[in-house]
Amino acid sequence: MDLFQVFGLVIIVLAVFGIVYKRITNTDLKKKKKHLKREEERRRRSIAAINSRSSSDNQLIDYGDYKMSFGEIISAVIVVFLIIMLVGELFYDNLIISLFLGLIALFAPRIRKKQLKEKRKNILSLQFKEAAASLSSSLAAGQSIENAFRDALKDLKLLYPNEETYIIKEFSIINRRVENGESIERAFDDFAKRSDVEDIKNFSDVFITCKRSGGNLVDVIKRTVDIINEKIEIQQDIKVLVSQKKFESRIIAVMPLGMIAFLKYTSGDFVRPLYEFGTPGPIVMTVVLGCTILSMVISQKLMKIEM
Question: Which segments cross the bilayer (predicted)?
Answer without folding.
Answer: 6-24, 70-88, 94-111, 247-265, 277-298
